[in-house]
Predict the structure.
Amino acid sequence: MLRFAPSPTGDMHIGNLRVALFNYIVSKQRNEDLIVRIEDTDKERNIEGKDQEILDILALFGIEYTQVIYQSQNVRFHTAMALQLLHEIKAFNCFCSTEWLDKKRAEAKENKEAYRYDDACADLPAELVIDNMNPFTVRIRKPHDAIIVKDHIKGEISFDPNEIDSFIILRQDKTPTYNFACAVDDMLSDVTLIIRGEDHMSNTPKQDLIRTSLGYDKKIEYAHLPIILNDHGKKMSKRDDASSVKWLLEEGYLPSAISNYLILIGNKPPCEIFEMKDAIEWFNLDNISKSPARFDIDKLKFINREHLKNLDPKELSRYVGFADTEIGKLAKVYLEEAGTTKELKSKIAPIFADKIIPSEFEEQAKIMAETIKNAPYFEEYEDFKNHIMKESGLKGKNFFKPLRLLLTGAEHGPDVAEIYKYLKNYIGEIVK
Ligand code: GLU
C-alpha cells in the first residue's frame, strides 16, 4: 500500500504534486493500491474546500487512487493506541506546564544547546499520576537504541537515540499530535513504502519509534524527495508563483507537461519528453538525485511546447477555446512563437477580434476589407492573393501589411500563405 498524504492547508505545491506522481507511478509498478489521506487534524490551518481542490488536481493529472481517508476520522484509533502505550508504560503522562517547558526551551537556546525534554515526568510514582488534577499531555518514551532508516534516495540513515526525546503524542486536550496520527495511520493502512518530501525526514525516526512501541514490526521503506529550488537557489515557496500547480495550469501548462517536467528533474530518464505511461515503464526511485532540483520555467515551457505539438488538433483547438480541428492545426503553426495555451490564445483570439489598424495603413485596410468581403471563396492562397491584389489595386507593403493585419490581427507572425489553409473557411468571420 502506498499513500499520498496532503494537508488541506493551501494551494497544491509542485513539490506535493511530484510526491503524488511518484507515489502513483510506484503503486502502478508494484501493483499495489494507492490511497489519499487528507491530513486534516490541524483545524486551525485547514482551509475549507482545499481537500476537494487537491482531489480535482489529482484527477486532472490522471493520478488514480483506491480510497480517500480523512485523518480526523481516525482520532478514536489514535486515542486507543495512546492508551495502549500508557498501559504498557511505553508512554507516560506529563504534567509539566507549557510555561515551564517554554522556560526550559529558552534556557537551552541561551546555552546554544538543542532542547530535549528532560523526562521529569517519565517515572512519577503512580499516586502522583492517578490523583493529579493538573492538565497533562501524553509523551512516548524515548528510544534506547539508534533508529535506522533505509531510504531509497538518501541511503541508510542512523538517528542517535539522544536526538529523539520523549515527545508528545497526545496534547493537553487529548488530540493526537501530527507525528502520532501519521505513524498510526500508516500502520493501520499497512503502508509499505512512504514517498514524501525531505522536510519530513526529521519526523521519520519519531514515527518509526511510535510504531515499534506499538509492537508493529513491519519495516516501512522510505523515499524522501529533495526540495525544489527557485532561481535564487532558495526553496520554492508560496511567494514563487510557479510553485503553485493551480498557477501553472492557469498559465497554460498542460498537466502532461507538468508531470513530464516533475518526473524529469533530478532523474535519469531514457528520454526527455514522455507521458506518464512511459514513465511507469522505466521509472526507478533509486535513480532520483539526492541533491535539490532547480525549477526552470524555460525548460518547462520547452517541454510544454513539445506536448502541445503532440496533441491532436481537435484537442489543441479546445485548449485555445475553439471546437474544430482547423483551429487546432492553425494553433500548431503558432507554436513556433507560443509555448503555453495561454500564449496560443493570445495569438489566436486577435484573428477573430475587431482589428486595430495603425493609421498609416487605415486607408488601404478599408479598401482591402471591402474587396475581401466581396470576393468569392478560394481554395488556394495564391488565387485568393491574386484576386485581392487585382481587385484592390494595392501592391507591395501596402498590400501585404494590411492583409496580415486583417487576417491575423498582428503585424508579425507566421507566413500568411501557410495559415490561409486553416483560415480560408472563416474569412467571413475574420474580416467583418
Ligand atoms: N501532510 C504532509 C504534507 O502535506 C505529508 C505527510 C507525509 O507524507 O507523511 O506535507
User: Anything to note?
Assistant: Residues 5-7, 39, 182, 196, 200 surround glutamic acid (CB under 6 Å). Residues 386 and 392 are 10 Å apart (CA to CA). The domain at 354-430 is CATH 1.10.10.350 (Arc Repressor Mutant, subunit A). The chain has a mean pLDDT of 96.
